[in-house]
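Milestone 3.1: sequence recovery, worked example.
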């Protein structure tokens, strides 16, 4: 009887559910293999890349051997593998796709590991008990820190005790511009310890950063959402900045959200987790995560509300009050930001008589000139406030505003040398503090045609307000036709929590997140898909659709708990893809 040999369970790097369980291969006697090692294995008459997900001993006579080891060291460890498995199930994705997300673009090779500089004195931690526990290697529950932009100071203060203990920190932000700005500021505080992690880096540079993070403790990794899955050695703290931003969720399948990655990793690996920002998501508030503040009671500076219903008919996109403020700012050689929620010329609409923004009375979505709601298709009719039949554009896009403003001011893109900046949300990432901020159309954000519109509006508007510097003469003007809207009231108070609590109550009535779960299924054919999906339903699960849009068919699956549906979807999606059907699964969609 032969002695038992070493066996590796390997998941081939093939994007299909069919290989999720992996295949068993014998490990040659002289081969060094660990969980997370990338290997080459025989499969179906060819050699393919694979990930080792398990090791055991047993009879190896009938097993094919691993051909070669490709990586110098593992790309994930056992605890990170547990998170990757959970993500594959939650987001209805093949496990191999998630395993690849932990890896760098090139195969990792050993890199030079420099010695680290000592940590200079820093500001006291805004969460001293948490920082002390993490520095000592203890576990601390997740926390939310309400703080205004910029975020470099609180991140540095949170990270310093951890880095002094030669443990590592990951800070996740939304965009490359924010990575570079934050990393540059943190490098001044922690020279030689800051790494960058985002896919736009050159492949060799990104692989080198990944490799150092995975082999040397005591580092601060600043990256976009991809860095949240790095196998950082000595990871003690993950900081997620403004987790409600849309860039924190992947658009393509699997539609992974950084918030859920961070929460799962913290629970499995028992490292610290702090969320930073001015407006937490309703998901975090509903989860009962403790919330603390920095500074005073206001999270963002004072705002001034410009009530557009008090203006005469035919007033321009920018009110006379806002134009005077811009002129006063430019005359003092200061900088103004004019913010609108969209690009192009397409505006929202309001009644020409009473100035009330047109919106659907069924779902409260912002309405255009058409006869039916773009979200729920309900008939719109005349103005519900006064019966008016004429509607005028409100809140033009960037291009239309640019035409108007350039008649009086030098206008440029955000970050340019022009005294007046004009931009949308996507431009805020590259901006620094301004002396005046004018929001042209808050109502267009608040009544956008999706269920998170009000929450997103408060988050975006608070970002704009937070860009206004401290000191006399600095102002933020919010133009609105709905001065008593809950979002505007929350902006005035400088505190998001009561507003978010009311949002959670509203969502509970319709079982929308965070009070329920939603999955959107998108196919390029309806075929037998409707029967397949309805077979997954059960008690407490509703399936809506199919709805046709842009040549594709959409179904919405909704319920309090969709774990069983996710498991069934894996089988159904596999069968569809085997038939050549293009499938997109959006778990926890940001828009409906």
């Amino acid at each position: 009887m032969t002695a038992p040999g070493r066996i590796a369970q390997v998941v081939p790097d093939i994007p299909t559910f069919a290989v999720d369980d992996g295949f068993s291969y014998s490990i040659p006697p002289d081969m060094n293999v660990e969980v997370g090692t990338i290997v080459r294995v025989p499969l179906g008459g060819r050699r393919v890349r694979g990930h080792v997900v398990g090791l055991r001993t047993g009879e190896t006579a009938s097993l094919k051997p691993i051909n070669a080891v490709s990586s110098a060291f593992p790309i994930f460890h056992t605890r990170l593998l547990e998170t990757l498995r959970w993500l594959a199930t939650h987001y209805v994705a093949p496990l191999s796709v998630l395993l690849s997300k932990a890896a760098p673009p090139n195969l990792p090779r050993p890199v030079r590991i420099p010695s680290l500089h000592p940590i200079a004195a820093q500001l006291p931690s805004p969460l001293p008990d948490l920082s002390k526990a993490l520095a000592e290697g203890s576990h601390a529950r997740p926390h939310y820190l309400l703080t205004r932009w910029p975020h470099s100071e609180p991140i540095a203060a949170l990270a310093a005790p951890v880095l002094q203990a030669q443990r590592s920190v990951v800070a996740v932000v939304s965009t490359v511009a924010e990575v570079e700005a934050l990393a540059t500021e943190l490098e001044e505080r922690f020279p030689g310890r800051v790494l960058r992690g985002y896919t736009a880096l050159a492949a060799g540079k990104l692989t080198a950063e990944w490799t150092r993070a995975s082999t040397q403790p005591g580092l601060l990794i600043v990256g976009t959402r991809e860095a949240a899955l790095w196998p950082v050695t000595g990871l003690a703290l993950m900081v997620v900045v403004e987790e409600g931003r849309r860039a924190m969720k992947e658009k393509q399948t699997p539609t992974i959200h950084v918030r859920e990655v961070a929460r799962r990793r913290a629970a499995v690996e028992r490292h610290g987790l702090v969320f930073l920002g001015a407006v937490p998501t309703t998901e975090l508030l509903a989860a009962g995560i403790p919330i603390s503040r920095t500074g005073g009671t206001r999270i963002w500076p004072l705002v001034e509300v410009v009530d557009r219903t008090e203006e005469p008919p035919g007033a321009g996109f920018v009110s006379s009050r806002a134009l005077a403020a811009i002129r006063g700012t430019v005359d003092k050689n200061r900088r103004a930001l004019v913010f609108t929620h969209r690009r192009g010329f397409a505006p929202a609409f309001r009644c020409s008589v009473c100035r009330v923004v047109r919106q659907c009375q069924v779902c409260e979505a912002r309405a255009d000139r058409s006869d039916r709601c773009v979200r729920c298709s309900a008939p719109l009719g005349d103005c519900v406030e006064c019966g008016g039949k004429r509607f005028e554009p409100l809140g033009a896009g960037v291009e239309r505003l640019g035409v108007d403003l350039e008649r009086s001011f030098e206008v440029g893109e955000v970050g340019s040398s022009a005294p007046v900046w004009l931009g949308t949300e996507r431009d805020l990432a590259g901006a620094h503090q301004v002396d005046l901020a004018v929001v042209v159309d808050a109502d267009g954000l608040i009544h956008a045609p999706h269920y998170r519109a009000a929450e997103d509006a408060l988050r975006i508007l608070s970002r704009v307000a937070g860009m206004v510097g401290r000191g006399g003469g600095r102002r933020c003007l919010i133009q609105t036709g709905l001065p008593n809207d809950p979002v505007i009231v929350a902006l005035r108070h400088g505190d998001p929590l009561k507003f978010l609590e009311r949002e959670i109550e509203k969502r509970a009535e319709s079982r929308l997140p965070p009070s329920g779960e939603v999955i959107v299924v998108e196919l390029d054919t309806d075929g037998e898909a409707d029967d397949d999906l309805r077979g997954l339903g059960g008690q407490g699960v509703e399936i809506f659709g199919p709805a046709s849009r842009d040549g594709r068919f959409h179904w919405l699956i909704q319920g309090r708990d969709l774990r069983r549906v996710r498991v069934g979807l894996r089988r159904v999606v596999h069968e569809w893809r085997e038939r050549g059907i293009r499938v997109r699964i959006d778990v926890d969609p940001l828009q409906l």
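The mean pLDDT is 90. The CA atoms of residues 191 and 257 lie 31 Å apart.
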